[in-house]
Amino acid sequence: MKTRLKRSTTSGNNGLLLGAHESIEGGIHKAIERAESIGCNTLQIFTKNSNQWVSRPLKEQDIENYKNSASKSKIRFIMAHSIYLINLCAADPLILKKSRDALVDEINRCDLLGIPIIIFHPGSHMGLGESRGIKKIIESINRVHDKTSASSVKSVLETTAGQGTSIGYRFEHLREIIEGVENRHRIGVCVDTCHIFAAGYNISSETGYEKTIEEFDRIIGLEILEAIHINDSKKDLGSRIDRHEHIGKGLIGKTGFRCLMQDKRFISIPKVIETEKGKDLREDLINLKVLRRLAGKIK
């Protein structure tokens, strides 16, 4: 069973694809239960421990439990995020090989589970320079796609804040990578609101929001947008520091999120929050409530 997005044409709050990243503690299927318990219809997960290069292979029981839970749930779209260790333009050859192998494994795991997209950060050039870094990322993605040629899973590049030597904090970076990918139908983009704000795209006002979306469309194209991470920012515009904050509590503020949530162009784009929470998921409940209220009735 493919947990692939069914594009919605429904207007109003009911048409929104909105949810959160949830823990897979106790089994991947447990993330579905957690998401449903707080009223999500969209979910993001890790398919393995996010801070380890190698995890045990998925067992048949893992896959069966997940697919059974997904088939019975009201979750309409499930996406995966890669482990944080992956760096597709690593200067160290060993880290580069591990990163490529890890992304191949991520795609294979998504295939087994029926998850249609895997989101990952492009990488950090670690002193090589952005131009060389971008070339390495392109080479890495092409190699990964060659090794997973039978897969239908999309590789989705996430916008970054530009912290350290990370690539992807300018829309032009992502366009250059996409243009270099041989299997163009297998590549997409995920926008993280905190990241683009920290990178210098001012989405905190109506004017700034519209300018940013226009720039994204002109440089990359809205048709390639696969997902949105909805996070407020603890740090200033252009700080290039990645620090997520709860919705409306940070420097983007409610105006920016109101613009996003009421933008009918994105009603069928899956959106998830990635903010800190306790085991009772209370913070997720609050953030989702704020976002739904900001969405109001989409015309």
Summary?
It contains nine helices and twelve strands.
Rg measurement, Å: 18 Å
- Structural class by helix and strand composition: alpha/beta
Count of strand segments? 12
At the first level of CATH, the class is Alpha Beta
Order of helices and strands: EHEHEHEEHEEHEHHEEEHEH
Strand proportion, as a percent range, falls in: 5-15%
Report strand order across the widest sheet. Answer: 1-2-3-4-6-8-9-12
CATH hierarchy: architecture: Alpha-Beta Barrel
Given as residue ranges, the uncertain stretches (5+ residues, pLDDT < 50) are: 1-12
CATH fold field value: TIM Barrel
Large-scale geometry = globular
* Amino-to-carboxy terminus distance: 33 Å
> What does the average pLDDT come to?
94
State the helix count: 9
Task: Give an overview in words.
This protein has one domain: Divalent-metal-dependent TIM barrel enzymes (TIM Barrel, Alpha-Beta Barrel). Mean pLDDT is about 95; it is low at about 1-10. Helix 4 packs across helix 5 (about 170-180). The chain is globular and about 45 Å long. The chain has 9 helices and 12 strands. Helix 2 links the parallel strand 2 (about 40-45) and strand 3 (about 75-80). The chain is an alpha/beta fold and about 300 residues long. Helix content is about 40%, strand content about 15%. The strands form 3 sheets. Strands 1-2-3-4-6-8-9-12 form an 8-stranded parallel beta barrel.
